[in-house]
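Feature request, filed as a ticket because there's no other form

It would be nice if the structure record came with a short human-readable summary line next to the tokens. Right now we just get the raw output. Example of a typical job, pasted below so the devs can see what we mean:
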Amino acid sequence: MGIERVFPYVGMVIVQFAQVGLMIAGKVAMSNGMTTFTFAFYSNALASLILLPISLWLHRSARPPLFYTFICGFFLLGLIGFLVQIFGYTGLMYATASLSSAMMNLIPGFTFILAIIFRLEKFDCKSSGTLAKSIGTIVSIIGAFIITLYKGPTILGISSHSIAPIHTLTQSSAWLIGGLLLAIDSVVASVFIIAQALVLRKYPAVLLLMLFYSCFIAILSAAVSLTVERDTKAWSLKPMTRLIPVIYSGMFGNVFQVSMIMWCMRRRGPLFASMFHPLGVVIAIVMGIIFLGEAFYLGSLLGSIVVSIGFYSVMWGKAKEGKMVHDDREKSSESNDKKTPLLQKKVEDGVVIV
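Raw output as currently delivered:
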């Protein structure tokens, strides 16, 4: 029993390693001549080929019907996901894996803001959960400003390592551009989370949704790449420093991460799965230094700490509201139990009063 309770912890740690590995794979491929569009195309096309037999087999007995509105919803998710990947990979070209991982902790806060704007969540200023999420969101954004605007001295690694894909840019300019692109990426990712939740309410087959999602991203990436890029060499999978990242991304991107996160969430809940995101910053720092020769700066350390504090504040607020909802449901259930004898009596009389 004890070992089974450990498995979700191990699974989420593996997910964080896979996520950081995905960032490093993308940066390695693009530093060897691939563009963001061609890398997104190959990785999502491979993910689609892997998901096709798996999703069809798992949903062979109970497959929800595909209506036109569902296809439109899948395309919308694919379009948003396309923007998420392009902004993310482009920002990664200018910045470091640790900065990219730290910026991902902004997503819960931005999701909270968008949920209020679209009236998917109520803003109750008297609620401790709402206040915690509001303060956490503000703190996370302040942390993101610190990371982006203050680089500071080098703590680990070699500061002379160039991170700018365009040599005319200084490291400071590239860092700023990368931070802004990754912040935009977090906002778009928050929009994706809300859109995904709305689609899943109508079409709960997650793997089929991810299949269409990957297919549409691959189609959009190919269309944009063929339109804006003239260099056919960007499509080449040689040398191995291009091919291996594509294979890794296709296998450990949508396919592995979605499956593992779903498995952990079913056993421990969504809050448990979210708690491990700040661990990705530490993993990104270590792997970035080892595999990419990146430097880790004081501004990244301070900003990451502030962002993580804001992240956990938002998570605490969500947990608090979740507990209040659970308590309300229990009280409602107890109230219904007390009314059951009266209800039974009315049924016996042939009249039901609800």
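Something like this underneath would help us a lot:
The chain has twelve helices and two strands.
The radius of gyration is 23 Å.
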